[in-house]
Amino acid sequence: MKRYTDMEYLRLSKGRKFLYKIAAFFCAIPRGLKNFFLGIVRAVVNFFKSIGREFADIFTTFVKGDWKTKLSYFVMGFGNIARGQILRGLLFLLFEAVFIVYMIVAGAKWLSMLPSLGKVGPHEVYNPVLDQYTTEYGDNSFKILLYGVLTIFFIIAFIYTWRVNIRQNKLSEQIIKSGKPLKSGRDDLRSLVDDNFHRTLLALPLTGILIFTVMPIIFMILVAFTNYSGINDGYANNLFTWVGLDNFNTLLAWEGAGNVYSATFGEILSWTLIWAFFATFTNYFLGMFVAMMINKKGIRLKKLWRTILVLTIAIPQFISLLYVSKMFDKNGIINGLLSDLGIISQNIDFWGSTAHNALLPRVMVIVINIWIGIPYLMLIATGILMNIPADLYESAKIDGAGGWKQFSKITLPYMLFITGPYLLTSFTGNMNNFNVIYLLTGGKPINAAASSAAGSAGYTDLLITWLFKITTGEGAKYYMASVIGILVFVVVAVISLVVYNLLPSIKNEEDFQ
Amino acid sequence: MSKQREEAQAVMKRHMGLKASARISNTVIHIVLVLMAIIWLVPFVCIVLQSFRTETNPDGTRVTWMVPYIVPKKWGLDNYVNLFKSDFKDWYLNTFIIALVVAAVQTFIVLCMSYTLSRFRFKLRKGLMQFMLILGMFPGMLTMIILYRVLKDLGLTEAHAVPGLILVYVASSGMGYYVSKGFFDTIPKTLDEAARVDGASRAQVLFKIILPLAKPIVIYTVLTAFMAPWGDFVFARYIAFGDSSGMNAAVGLWKWLTQDMINLRYTMFCAGGVVVAIPVAVLFMCLQKYYVEGVTGGAVKG
């Protein structure tokens, strides 16, 4: 593609300018991707380099260190205690003791079972006393996977602590050589509310995130490579085991047994993207439009209009959405009203029941989402519109710009510039907008071709509601859900990366301070 | 001379025209706004009206199902009376307890997180923020599958779902630090530095200087932390489903609208919806100002 200089660009006609911008956008994608992958390669290289440095440092510290340091390689915290830092030393020692005891008692067992995820499933055993067969339970694949992952985490934590312990010995030796006193336990405690205050503050939030987000995500990524499901639940019915990439093959296969899945996946993915696009941009522009209407000079009762709209934010979505979905029911209020007024003779099936009328429910969810979404955008747009300097409009008026010109040349660019990142997050948020879809339609109308195999997916199902359906009920297929979850992540991550690299308004966070 | 006057008249005319057109456009806008207000209010008006509907069939049974008209033919408080005789009172209490505890703990966690990320420059800070950004791209529902099973093993699902739900809502709340970090970023750092020079510790700076200034964001955080579990459906559907006594209001009322319950419970659902909506709606309307500040700030800073 030919690149224009600034002067050449300004000389282009309006249409050409627009085309040029679009072309530039797409031409920037490969570059963005290239930078991204180069970044990854660089990060990997740096990672290995730093590991090499660590090993070198561990080795030299051992060779050059005194006997206290050398002993600390085996008895963690010994150096600290011997040099008078009792508190630190005891903490190190305690950690090592706990680690060793855990590994002997349980950790080694879980680790050794991790490759097979258990060998003995539930089986019938003859009980001579009762003279009947009773079920005896064997291994628990779920626990093996869970505790196996936890044990690996623990080992990593141990290695890290061991490394810190060595580094501390090296530091203390240096400090003692320079003749300064070492920090006492009391100093350490005091620093927790002062220099190290950030560690105190972050301890609780990060622990929560680690246990309730990071761990489950790692676990679920692993589940995508197993056959964990309602039938293979790993304990009561059958064990589950590793299946490699089979699940990905099933979901992405174009022919063969997995065809139903891949066709359903393709259909739902494309609807998810269409939905996210319309849900984001209808709300964005209509919300902005409403905000401008309310803020216009000469409009009365501004506060009243705002309050009425904001009511939809104040009332929990599950009430308003459930109720609205019933209002549009085939026997609901809207149909009653329309037939009373003589507008329709036959009740309209707004939520559809077959593939025939799948379009209407899809339009309906987008329209009702406007009802839900406009108030948020109205609030956001009002805040931003008030910040646009008034003299911009004044001078535009003097230059003879009409309402539309003012909007397209001042308001819109300003809004887009400021809310670029917000648009991105609301797009990805809409991709995962569970509430609106599930409470309004429940994914219906059901896609007959797909539902036989793939968790009764429907025409308004998003990936996220499909994922939910697959994980509930008797025939739950957790492995499929986690494959879908991973793919949702990939889609969101790619969109975010591409858009984020192209946004004009990536700001330096220090700018605000 | 006359030419000048003509020009002046032309200018006048244009102004008059502008004014007239402005008046017309304002009238149009007013009409649009009134129509919008009606559209936005209709569902809420309907649900309130339906909640007072207490008609009976000729044989004396109650008409508890959906009807295609809005204004009740017979008014009464029966639905509300029956509501508090049903399981609903458990659900309501559960929701209330969950929302209160979550509001308190989550506010604490979010403030810790956002203050730290805004004020301290430590190793791995950028990495931590990027890591949480990436974590946020995974659908949260994915984690529910394992959390449900673990909580079930601990006995924190179904009948005893309340502590389990609190745990789930609170645990990862550190990830939602963006808005309040944006707020802390706007408090000048020179304030901290001045206090540090005077010998205050980091903790004293937070409690004595920053927190008093952060009232708006504290209120915003409490408000959103209260409203989210109050109306949460997804996680509660997972964890509390199966036993009525552990459900929150959202799941319980949702169940009333499923195929086999709707004809018996529709009017009670309306009454329940009103009872659930009123406290949060009032709270929200009172604290609207803070919410708006938080939302606009959050959108501007991304």
Number of strands of chain A: 2
* Assembly annotation: heterodimer
The main sheet of chain A comes to:
2 strands, antiparallel
Calculate the terminal CA-CA distance of chain A, rounded to whole Å: 40 Å
Give a quick account of the main beta sheet of chain B: strands, pairing sense, barrel closure: none
Individual helix count of chain B:
14
- CATH superfamily assignment of chain B? MetI-like
Measured between the Cα atoms of the first and last residue of chain B, the distance is 60 Å
Label the structural class of chain A. Answer: mainly alpha
CATH-level-2 architecture of the largest domain in chain A? Orthogonal Bundle
Assign a percent range to the helix content of chain A: 55-70%
Order of helices and strands of chain B: HHHHHHHHHHHHHH
As for the CATH topology of chain B, it is MetI-like fold
Give the radius of gyration of chain B: 27 Å
Would you tell me the overall average pLDDT of chain A? Answer: 83
CATH architecture of chain B: Orthogonal Bundle
- Unreliable stretches of chain B, pLDDT < 50, 5 or more residues? none
CATH topology term of the largest domain in chain A: MetI-like fold
Strand content of chain A: under 5%
Work out the count of structural domains of chain B.
1
